[in-house]
Amino acid sequence: MNKKTVILFLLLGFFNFCFAQAPIDKKNEIGVTEHLGKNIPLDLKFARETGDSVTLRQIVNKPTIVMFVYFDCTSLCIPLMQGVCEVVKQTDLKLGKDYQILTISLDPADTPDKAIRSKASITQSLSKEQKNGWIYLTSSDSTIQRMIHSVGYNIKEVGMVFIHPAAIVIVSPKGKIPRYLYGMTYLPFDIKMAISEANKELSRPTIQKILLYCFSYDPDGKRYTLQVTRITGTIIVFILIIFIIVLFFKRKRKKNGK
Q1: Does residue 16 form part of some domain?
Q2: What pLDDT, in 10s, does the model give residues 104-115?
Q3: Which of 193, 204, 136, 187 minimizes the C-alpha distance to 170?
Q4: Is residue 230 part of a domain?
Q5: DSSP state of 135
Q6: Which pairs from 208-213 meet CB under 8 Å and 24+ separation?
Q7: How far apart are CA 76 and CA 99, in angstroms?
C-alpha cells in the first residue's frame, strides 16, 4: 500500500469520525411518530369535565377523535379545537351517535373546572347531543405521558408552555389507531373517511364500504385521494365479464338455431 492510499484512508476515517451523525432520539423531537394499527392503553384513568373519574375503556365505545391541548394555550390549541368544531358542523355524521371526540389536556395542572370552561367556550354553537359527544379529560402527568407515548405524540415542555404538533388521532371502538389527520382545519370528507376506517370493527353502511374501496389515504399529501387505477380496473373487469356473458349467449343461440 503506497503513501497516497494510506493518507486517503486516514482522511476518510477522520471525516467519518467528525461528521458521522449520532443516533437521533426521536422521542425528543416535536411531532408525530405514527403508531398505525397499535392500541391505546384503555386502562388509563382520567377525570371528565364533570369531575367523574373514568377509564378510556368506559368511554371509547365508538369511533373517536382524540386531540391533545392545554387550556391556557391560545396560539395553537384554541384554533385546533375551533377547527374541529367547524368540521363537526359541516359533516353529515352525528357527533355523539356516529362518533365522539376526546380532548385530553397535556397539562397535569389543568382541572375539570378549567375543562368545563374551555368546553363551554368551544362548543357553544353545537347542539346538546353534540356537546354530550365531546368529552374533555384531565389527568396526572404519568397518565398523560403514557397516553401521548402510545400514539407517538411528541411534545416539549418549556416552562409553563407545551410545544406540540397540530394533529388529531382517530381511534376505533376497540382502541386501535387507523389514522392520523394533520393541521388545524379539516375537510369533512377526510373526517368521514377516517371514521369509516375506524368503524371497520363494526357493521358499516354499504356507502361507507364503497367510499373506502374508491378512496385511500395518501400519507405524503396527508389526505384521501380517489383510487383511479382501482376504479378503472374494476370497470374494465366488469365490461369483460359482460362481454364474455354476451358472447356465450350469442354462441348458444347460434347452436340452438342450427
Answers
A1: no
A2: 999 999 999 999
A3: 193
A4: no
A5: E
A6: none
A7: 24
Q: How far is Cα 255 from Cα 199, in angstroms, rounded to an integer? A: 52
User: Residue 8 domain-assigned?
Assistant: no
Structure-block grid coordinates of residue 52: 367523574
Under 8 Å between Cβ of 168 and 88: no
CA dist 229 and 47 (Å) reads 48
Please state the domain count of the chain.
1
pTM, rounded to two decimals: 0.70
Cβ(63)–Cβ(99) below 8 Å? yes
φ/ψ of residue 45, rounded to 5: -105, 135
Specify if 7 maps to a domain.
no
CATH of the domain at 139: 3.40.30.10
Per-residue model confidence as pLDDT tens digits over 182-193: 988 898 988 988
- Spatial distance between the Cα atoms of 78 and 74, rounded to a whole number of angstroms: 5
- Residue 135 φ/ψ, nearest 5 degrees: -110, 135
Q: Which domain holds residue 69?
A: 26-203
